[in-house]
Specification:
The complex is a heterodimer of chains A (172) and B (506). Chain A is an all-alpha fold and 172 residues long. Chain A has helices at 8-30, 48-70, 86-103, 115-137, 141-166; strands spanning 107-108, 111-112. Chain A has a two-stranded antiparallel sheet. Chain B has a two-stranded antiparallel sheet. The chains are: A mainly alpha (172), B mainly alpha (506). The interface between A and B is large, with 71 and 64 residues.
């Protein structure tokens, strides 16, 4: 996946983000309750380790910042990660979030969406959507729909049966 | 010695019933399929199977996980040889010579070599697993809070340094992992840290949903975002291994097995580094280095022996120190804890049988990959041709239900989604996942032991640096960091030249 090195510009932006995250973590740890009322040993204060990690993240962020500046990160340059696959990524992310966050275990319009139905819909739409272009080009749309439907029914039935009946998991 | 053999015999006998053997066969086959499919890694496979085996008896559940772990690392060589795509990151080195052999019409021979190497590697690693775990466990009994603190930091720093191609980003990923482990109730006073009055966050992130997200969902996104080509498979010769290859390259097998095992023992480094290191060592020692990368039998043998030897190697520190040697071993360790096995220095005192159970599991897994690797060559070809667009949505369904099944709460599904997106973005910008995961796993160990150590020494830092094991670990951490600076490397090089005038240093 990490096929090519990101541009110094991207590293510079990441470095700034790490410095901000490190500072926030340090502040969170430093200002955390030291439980003095409970008379605890001050070396066991709960914020000690997060504060130290915050410093570590910020310091590494500063080193990354210096390196990216040295490599020309301040010059306006394009990021190496071209969004060539942006459409497919957005589709994958969108379908996944709608399924896992919006359908599984949810009640829509007063109707509790059963797990098997959500799963069947997700698998059917995902397979069809990602194969659409190729199937259409080959004139196999009908076959593509049949394959997607078979996979959707098989997955929904199989996963529901295994988890509900064999593992006794109360499905969402 | 004889006690160990007796325990090993008892473990073998306990697994030798028909149902367990069937489970072993299924797990090995599933592992090989997971490994062979590009996009499904060993870590992802072990994490998903952990959720699928929650309700099984602990010994059988862990048997499934060990067999699938070994199977996946082996299975990854199949797509490396046939498609020039490593099935798991551990098999990248196998692409070089494996695919070159396939292009020459010797795909069958390459499969035979990879099977032989994987089997021999696992057996060598298994031998060291049985030998070293009790010894390391004995040493670890001398560890105190200071040593465990350094061990946790050592794991993150070494892992950050050796995985990926940018140590700075590896350390950042490791530190972020350590911080994520701090979210939720702190392990000493149960104080809620960074929970923002959220009841779910107060419990912290569960390890398995986080790992399923970072390795499973992130991989689903990666594969679906990329357009894939229909795989082209080269013609085949016979895939049965030749005894001549084993006899001719026995030195390579032994060397790679030892290198793989020892790299496995180093926390968080893992199979891919083991494979490349074994490959590089074989090339240096070879009489025919010019053949490497062009279809060298020796190169493929070294790479495949090294990565599979790393599997038992990575389990040695899990058992003896509760510190994982690789990302899949981190998941395996989490699974052991879920199933009530507490790995760590006391395991040889409290549960020595379990160590030899794992050794026996390795032996069964080795037999499994040998049988299925050679018997199911043609069916596995069919599996490789199933489009990723069909497999990945189904894998995502397993990611969702697997995350949910552990505690049956939707927060874990959101955890999986969140870690998946974060994992995808981090990987896209060259932040390796192994130190990130190791940070999450070791965060608790580091946190507790730093604070305990400070209490024991009343704030005095000297025990962290002056006790022998602490001092050694601290020195390795420091040297690892410093050696990444060119100026420090130049000083060391100059000192080396000055101290060894008889060597011609370039």
């Amino acid at each position: 996946m990490a096929d090519s090195n990101p541009s110094p510009r991207a590293d510079l932006i990441w470095a700034l983000a790490w410095i901000a995250i490190g500072a926030a973590v340090f502040t969170g740890g430093f200002t955390m309750d030291r439980l003095e009322r409970q008379n605890i040993n001050p070396y066991t204060a709960p914020g000690l380790v997060p504060a130290m990690l915050g410093i570590g993240i910020a310091v590494l962020g500063v080193i990354l910042l210096m390196r990216s500046v040295r490599r020309g990160g301040l010059a306006a340059a394009e990021d190496g990660r071209t969004p060539a696959d942006g459409g497919r990524l957005a589709l994958a992310l969108g379908l996944s979030i709608v399924y896992a966050g919006g359908l599984v275990g949810r009640t829509l319009l007063g109707f509790h969406v059963p797990f098997w139905l959500a799963t069947a819909l997700f698998v059917f739409v995902s397979i069809l959507a990602f194969e659409w272009h190729d199937r259409r080009a080959r004139g196999e749309l009908g076959r593509g729909i049949a394959v997607a439907a078979a996979c959707a029914i098989g997955t929904a039935a199989g996963v529901t049966a295994v988890f509900q009946e064999v593992f006794l998991v109360r499905l969402p | 010695m004889f006690d160990g053999l007796a325990l090993f015999g008892k473990s073998l006998a306990s697994f030798a019933d028909p149902l367990t053997l069937l489970i072993i066969a299924g797990a090995c086959l599933l592992g090989i399929v997971i490994g062979a499919l590009p996009g499904l890694t060993a870590t992802m496979g072990v994490a998903l199977l952990t959720t699928l085996t929650l309700k099984m008896p602990s010994d059988r559940a862990l048997l499934v996980l060990v067999c699938s772990y070994v199977g996946a690392i082996y299975g990854g060589s199949r797509s490396a040889i046939l498609l020039n795509i490593p099935g798991t990151p551990a098999n990248a080195a196998a692409c070089l010579d494996g695919y070159a052999l396939a292009q020459q019409g010797l795909a069958g021979r390459a499969i035979g070599i990879s099977t032989t190497g994987s089997v021999m590697g696992t057996l060598i690693g298994m031998f060291f697993l049985a030998l070293f775990t009790p010894i390391l466990g004995e040493v670890a009994l001398k560890f105190g809070a200071y040593e465990f603190f350094w061990l946790a930091l050592f794991g993150v720093i070494i892992s950050g340094n050796l995985t990926g191609n940018d140590p700075l980003k590896g350390w950042l990923a490791g530190f972020v992992g350590l911080f994520i482990a701090c979210i939720g109730q702190d392990p000493i006073h149960a104080y809620e840290r960074f929970a923002f009055d959220n009841r779910d966050l107060a419990g912290g992130f569960q390890l398995i949903p986080a790992l399923v997200g970072a390795f499973g969902f992130a991989e689903v996104l990666t594969v679906l975002a990329a357009t894939t080509q229909k795989p082209v498979i080269h013609r085949f010769d016979t895939h049965f291994p030749r005894i001549g290859d084993v006899l001719k390259y026995w030195r390579t097998i032994l060397r790679s097995g030892i290198i793989g095992t020892f790299i496995g023992i180093v926390p968080g480094v893992g199979e891919d580094v083991a494979s490349w290191s074994s490959y590089a060592a074989a090339r240096r020692a070879s009489k025919e280095p010019e053949k490497f990368g062009k279809g060298s039998v020796e190169g493929l043998m070294a790479a495949e022996t090294g990565d599979n030897a790393c599997v038992p190697g990575a389990i040695i520190p899990v058992l003896a120190l509760a510190v994982p040697g690789s990302a899949p071993a981190a998941v395996l360790m989490a699974a052991m804890i879920i199933h009530g096995v507490q790995p760590g220095p006391l395991i040889m005192v409290n549960n020595p049988q379990f160590v030899f159970d794992v050794v026996a599991m390795m032996l069964f897994a080795t037999i499994g990959i040998l049988v299925f690797g050679l018997a199911l060559v043609k069916p596995l070809l069919k599996v490789l041709q199933v489009p990723r667009e069909i497999i990945m949505p189904i894998v995502f369904v397993l990611c969702v239900i697997g995350s949910y099944a552990i505690s049956q709460r939707l927060f874990d599904v959101w955890t999986m989604l969140g870690f998946g997106v974060v994992g995808y973005v981090l990987r896209r910008y060259n932040y390796p996942m192994a130190p990130f995961v190791l940070g999450i796993v070791l965060g608790d160990l580091l946190d507790k032991n730093l604070r305990r150590g400070l209490v024991l020494s009343d704030g005095d830092l000297t025990p962290f640096f002056l006790r022998p094991i602490s001092a050694t670990l601290a020195a390795i951490c420091l040297a690892t960091i410093l050696m990444n600076f060119a100026a420090v490397r130049r000083v060391f090089h100059a000192a080396y030249v000055a101290l060894t005038p008889w060597r011609k240093v370039t």
